[in-house]
Amino acid sequence: MTTPLPLADLQRWLLGAIAHPADGAAMADDIATRLLPSQRQSAGERLAVYQNAYVSRLLGVLRELFPCLRSAVGDDLFEQFALDYLRVHPPTSYTLHALADQFAPFLAATRPADDWAGFLVDLARLEHAFDQVFDGPGPEELEAALEVDVPWRLVPGFTLLAFSHPASSYYTAWKAGENPPWPAASEQFVALLRRDYVVRRFELSRPQFALLADLDAGQSLDDALAALAARSSLPPSALADEVRLWFTRWSAAGFFVAGKPRT
Amino acid sequence: MNARPGLPRLGLPHLGIGVGLRSVHFGHILRAGPAVDWFEIISENFLDSQGRPRHILRQIAERYPVVMHGVSLSIGSTDSLDFGYLAKLKRLAAETRAVWISDHLCWTGVAGRNSHDLLPLPLHEASLAHVAERVRIVQDFLERPLVLENPSSYVTFADSTLGEAEFLARLTSDTGCGLLVDVNNVYVSSRNHDFDPVEYLRSLPADRVVQFHLAGHTDLGTHCIDTHDGRVVDPVWRLYRLAHELTGGTSTLLEWDARIPTFDEVHAEAKKARQWIGEGEIREGEAPAEPLAAPIAIAVGSPPLPHPAHLITASAP
What we know:
The structure holds 2 protein chains of 2 kinds.
Chain A (H helix, E strand, L loop, with lengths): L6 H13 L4 H11 E2 L6 H23 L1 H7 L1 H14 L14 H8 L4 H21 L11 E2 L10 E5 L3 H9 L12 E8 L2 E7 L1 H11 L4 H11 L4 H18 L6 E2 L2
Parallel strand pairs in A: 2-6
Antiparallel strand pairs in A: 3-4, 4-5
Helix pairs in contact in A: 3-5, 4-5, 4-7, 6-7, 9-10
Chain B lengths: L16 E4 L5 H7 L5 E5 L9 H12 L2 E4 L13 H14 L4 E4 L2 E4 L2 E7 L5 H18 L3 E4 L6 E2 L6 H12 L2 E5 H11 L3 H7 L5 E7 L2 E2 L4 E2 L8 H14 L3 E5 L7 H14 L41
Parallel strand pairs in B: 1-2, 1-13, 2-3, 3-4, 4-7, 7-9, 9-10, 10-13
Antiparallel strand pairs in B: 5-6, 11-12
């Protein structure tokens, strides 16, 4: 009886053969040596079940996580993006939810200089953020009588996104069943939050985004408002009216932790 | 397996006929409160959840017994055990009062890479010692016996010197772990590896069988794939009846993971188990046992995807 290949070596070999079948020609001898045929299939045909499953499963997950991006670029281009991504970022986590964590940064790092590429990166960021907010921390478990250290504290999971293209508007049109053209560059700001376990999306103006970003970064309300005033060309009274309206809407929409100030 | 009634099953209860909890059925289960004996969850769908999936699981766990079934323990890997993952398993088990925790005799990755597949092990003395040591560590950490399932597999290794049933029998003896016998996997692997599934079942230690799995598969002629996308076929039901006789009966669960029909249809398929084991009363509303399900047409160029492929995604705004 021959000594079996050390398990770690066999596992490294098999995972390589599954995840990188393009190298298979060089491994044909290894496949025939290490794997057995069945009565109806060769060892290579049997290995192909795992090779096909590896690619299909991971592509399926990325398709499911980025339905709007896939629709925007079409199946073939999406698959090319996804396969390129998986080659550079193969899965390392026990959970498939982590599979797409580097997808948008990967697209940003490998994008061509063309304007449209920025739109696709924005769309990928938006869809990944949906998934993160959906199953990440949220406000639902907070106690109603929670004492908050900071008035107007944003709820857990509150996420701000700044886009170079109107990805949110595009997403809205796609969600409505339209087939919108790819938009030209035009900045867009979005807040995502969860309420009653459902992800909500709000488009913001630049001043609104900046104010919320300051609060999100931990600034006090007074400091954030002072910074807003310094950036604004509106007269103070008009700005105050505007900000009062924003906070009324944002409070109703669940932007802030509904606690009482710590005494 | 030797036919003995009233086997100890590690002291774990016989939960009856259960259904695999899938997100497409969340709403129905919460609204209708169907009369299901128990649910099995895919652990990884909930381990890290801080949103709706975990919220719903908590509600379901208040109403039904829950068992945790994982796909990422990777008990056969030569990478270090992931104690962060194990700690999350333990927390979720406490939160849901999980009756037991199961996973598969497999490995999912190595050298820090994850295949997200249930990859088979070469079965020999060295791999048995390796897996047994890791099972003992996991059981110590979880403070409960681990229950391991026979996976469907599509390759076998030239280095193997043990049959899978023998490997599992010795593993249970060495470690005290339990067995989840997936009857469909026994059938699928027997077709893929040319062994006798009846002999396989008779070789397992019946007193260690805690649970049975049932599922549909795809028969491609040259081999079968464990797709979980249809009804249980008659040859699998017949093996299930044998396994029931050999063990004296234990908790049984139907998995349906692709092309998932309504909850009632899944539940009706699960309840056919009662007829096959001679508790044959068909209750009103239950579908009668049907002959072999029609073969599933496979489109050229789209090979069927083996289980597992689980992900709960956001219904985005």
